[in-house]
Design a protein that fits this description.
The protein is α/β, with parallel strands linked by helices. It has 2 domains: 2-129, Response regulator (Rossmann fold), CATH 3.40.50.2300; 136-206, Arc Repressor Mutant, subunit A (Orthogonal Bundle), CATH 1.10.10. Helices cover 50% and strands 14% of the residues. It is built from 10 helices and 6 strands. Strands 2-1-3-4-5-6 form a 6-stranded parallel sheet, with helices on both faces. Helix 5 links the parallel strand 5 (100-103) and strand 6 (124-125). Helix 7 (151-161) packs across helix 9 (177-191). It is globular.
Length: 212
């Protein structure tokens, strides 16, 4: 059972999310809170798996709450669910290492699929957010500025930025998922990041990937 907490300052939206998730076998909404401090408090009180987090809330906002929760409870998967798709906010949130970033116009099926993916450790980005990442790619850097990444690792990083799963990367490059995971571990180490979302963000900032 995936235990979910909803953090949003709009009661009607919380109720709507609860109703959607109540029909999904294997997901249980265990608590709802209306601000960032409430989200922090609940993570200190009860065990759960996934936090659906709005960003724009009164008092302690979602961004500040994410910082605290990531530091205190790193095993909780934070899935940001917001209307804010500004470039500044997207990059600021992704740098915190949240599990996913979705916009509130997401359809119920995608939301449920995203919760399941976050639960098993897969990062989630909405198409709009992925587009913002790709939009930052202006020019590739010279090959010598590859931060020690091999050609195969750069290939894999290319797919990571595009939002491909390990299975999809393995199929495209004709290698096993285990090999993909091994390469990802090496990529994370060389880029000094903790997960694939941070790796994608850093790849974009350093212009390591050419998608032209």
């Amino acid at each position: 059972m995936i235990r979910v907490v909803i953090a949003d300052d709009h009661p009607l939206l919380r109720e709507g999310l609860r109703r959607i998730l109540s029909f999904e076998e294997g997901i249980e909404v265990v608590e709802e809170v209306g601000d960032g401090q409430g989200a922090i408090n609940i993570t200190r009180k009860i065990p759960f798996d996934v936090l659906l987090m709005d960003l724009n809330m009164p008092g302690v906002n979602g961004l500040d709450a994410c910082r605290v929760i990531r530091r205190e409870k790193p095993n909780i998967g934070i899935l940001v669910l917001t209307v804010d798709d500004s470039d500044e906010k997207v990059f600021e949130v992704l740098q915190l290492g949240v599990a996913g970033y979705l916009l509130k116009d997401v359809d119920p099926k995608t939301l449920i699929e995203s919760i399941h993916k976050v639960y098993i450790g897969e990062p989630i980005l909405s198409p709009a957010v992925t587009g913002k990442l790709l939009g930052q790619l202006a020019h590739p850097i010279p090959p010598k500025e590859n931060y020690g990444l091999s050609a195969r690792e750069l290939d894999i990083l290319n797919y990571v930025v595009r939002g491909a799963s390990n299975k999809e990367i393995g199929g495209a490059l004709y290698i096993s998922e285990k090999t993909v995971k091994n390469h990802l571990s090496s990529i994370f180490r060389k880029l000094d990041v903790e997960d694939r979302t941070q790796a994608a963000l850093k790849a974009v900032k350093l212009k390591l990937v050419d998608l032209n």
